[in-house]
Amino acid sequence: MKLPMTPMMPPSARFAPPLFAPLSGRRVAVIDIGSNSMRLVVYHHPVRTPLVLFNEKITCQLGQALEHSGALNPAGVVLALPQLQRYQQITAAMGVEHVMVVATAAVREASDGPEFVARIEALTGWQVQILSGQQEAELVAMGLIAADIDAEGMVGDLGGGSLELIQLHQAGGAPRVPQLGAMVSLNLGLLRLRDQAGGKLELAEKIIDDALVAAATDSALAARKGGKFYAIGGAWRSIARLLMDQENYRLRVIHQYRCLARHSLDFLAFLRKLPPGQLAHLPNLSANRAELTPLAALVLERILRWCDAEEVIFSTAGLREGCLYASLSPEEQQKDPLLTACHTLVTARRFGLDGSELSQFMADLFASQGRQTVRLAEAAAIISDIAWAEHPDDRAEWAWRRVLYMPVIGLNHSERVFLARAIYARYRGVAALPPGLDGILPHIGAEWGQLAQQIGLALALGYGLSGGDAAILAAARLQINGGHLELSLPHPLALQTQHIIAKKLNLLAESLGLSPDLRLLPAR
Description:
About 50% of the residues lie in helices and about 15% in strands. By secondary structure, the protein is an alpha/beta fold. Strands 8-7-6-9-11-10 form a six-stranded mixed beta sheet, sandwiched between helices. Strands 3-2-1-4-5 form a five-stranded mixed beta sheet, sandwiched between helices. A hairpin with an 8-residue loop joins strand 2 (about 35-45) and strand 3. The longest helix is centred in the last third of the chain and has 22 residues, at about 445-465. The chain is globular, with a radius of gyration of 24 Å. About 45% of the residues are buried.
């Protein structure tokens, strides 16, 4: 798809009400219905740099085989609809005042896209905005602008159905605000590219190169080559983690992680040549991402060569952040994002859970372990959301240190380590403590450390199931029955959550030496 150059105007003026009209009030949510995945992000307040209260993704692959069938993937639709009902329940429980729902390439191009949107609107009452390619490109750029007032260069957002490329430049003056230049939305999303090339990387390379040459010729996109390339999208974030591993990069924060393009090109070529079996065993690469990683590496490599980039910068800000930014008033958009974030960080709060609901949820698991364990499990439940406002990549380690040195009385040193281990597991699951942190574990021993981990896994299951809503948690029943860990849920809740909580339930059951068992409670 070709897109013309877009004249610069105030971002909030580009979209008609009601979706992108300036927002006010408290909590706001953005739901992004993409070609590969669907995500809900709840923000505490519609401000310049809000804190994220809740973030959940499910891989539906709505755009799978779209290139050949012309329609949405039926299996993806079956996954998406109950998940959207779950999102509705969570946003209502969290007191969200504004829900922005956007759909991208797969829905806008599928023959049954309008029917799918009509079903969503009938189920939820939400208005779904199907973004054009140009709107999607603009919003991606706005998301980067919201996160980086110094951004300048080429921006790329790789999704399942499309690739957006946008040029940013600084107009000079103060305050510094990047300006949007030429932009295109190309049919080079990973699912579509896989279908077009039939899994053959040589053919995919030709398809990519031909599309980039056409884009440069028809849109003036290549008028400003060189400089920085900003890489956005989940597949490229996965590659950033692998680059960090290769470099032994210690600050594990993907946003604004950067490297020289010439240093990354060899690694990208290496990635795209790895057989699937080896890719699946790379650390920090999920099974869902492994299949498409060679294609993602190929797309990034060809773009870096095409635009002659000197540096590649990975960004976690994109479409969803752009939706929020576009809805802000011009006055709010002009605020410094760093200073706004600092003010927000010290005043915001999240869920209304006081710990008793989580303690009750997991009571059957640890009641036989004695008073000390029950007491520590309750304490862990109370402080279990202690790190919610920290960066997701650092929450577990931050919580470990914070809990270990809490200025509280009423517990000995072994109990401090126990609580820290439990909260670490709440955020990081069964992952081992990083070197340098694990030396203190002998204070509690392997058996007690395992028990602390089980408490953390139970807390993670509780949050994953409920989204912090006490009523949802109260409707569930978690218990040990023989050799099974039974999680019983009301029928609608079970249908909406089973794909989200399966991994957390399996991890907890395995840690307890039990078999997971998800059951439906009879309707009341």
